[in-house]
Write a structure and sequence with these properties.
The chain is α+β, with helices and mostly antiparallel strands and 64 residues long. The protein contains three helices and three strands; from the N terminus they run αββαβα. A hairpin with a 5-residue loop joins strand 1 and strand 2. It is elongated. A three-stranded antiparallel β-sheet has the order 1-2-3. It has one domain: Factor Xa Inhibitor.
């Protein structure tokens, strides 16, 4: 049986931590930041865990 290939687009967008959490960068943090509040801009700097509904799908596309 052939090996499971890693989905390269998912690999670029997702990081798996040592504890197994799938971290992603928030959307909407690329441009037009002047229209957003300072609080939302600060929160967009940090990665956040992926929702539990999408976690299994991301892990499967990473070949885990």
């Amino acid at each position: 049986m052939p090996k499971q290939k890693t989905h390269k687009a998912t690999k670029k967008r997702v990081k798996v931590t040592a504890t197994g959490k799938v971290m992603v960068q928030p959307t909407g943090a690329r441009h037009m930041m002047s229209g957003k509040s300072g609080k939302s801009r600060r929160h967009m700097r940090r990665a956040r865990p992926l929702k539990s509904t999408d976690r299994a799908r991301a892990a499967r596309s990473l070949g885990k």
